[in-house]
Write a sequence for this structure.
């Protein structure tokens, strides 16, 4: 394992679970230029498996940079192309400020819990 791979393994956790019709992707750690590819792989795998209603839970994310935002925007474009949706669970004021400053709070559905995100009508 290289130093970069080791860093990725230590600083990002990705867990997926199904809550039909939603696929929940829970992220922990830091989403940056080093870890974003792992997030992208998890999201692309979910979409490739036919999941088009995604909920990305970033409640346990301490840091999110532009690379991570790019992954989320790319995933949103893919699921919307298939008539799907991508909602984000986040209550961290620092991360919510990033979504607000970039205008992405108008693009993504932002929710304070997985329950709230999965209560969104089709």
């Amino acid at each position: 394992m290289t130093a970069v791979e080791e860093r990725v393994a230590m600083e990002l956790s990705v867990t997926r679970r199904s809550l039909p019709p939603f696929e929940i992707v829970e992220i922990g750690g830091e989403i940056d230029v080093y870890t974003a590819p792992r997030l992208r792989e998890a999201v692309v795998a979910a979409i490739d498996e036919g999941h088009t209603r995604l909920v990305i839970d970033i409640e346990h994310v301490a840091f999110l940079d532009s690379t991570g935002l790019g992954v989320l925007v790319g995933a949103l474009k893919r699921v919307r192309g298939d008539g799907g949706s991508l909602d984000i669970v986040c209550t961290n004021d620092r991360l919510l400020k990033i979504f607000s400053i970039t205008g992405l709070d108008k693009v993504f559905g932002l929710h304070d819990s997985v329950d709230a995100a999965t209560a969104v009508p089709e």
Observations:
- The chain has a mean pLDDT of 91.
- The longest helix spans residues 66-81.
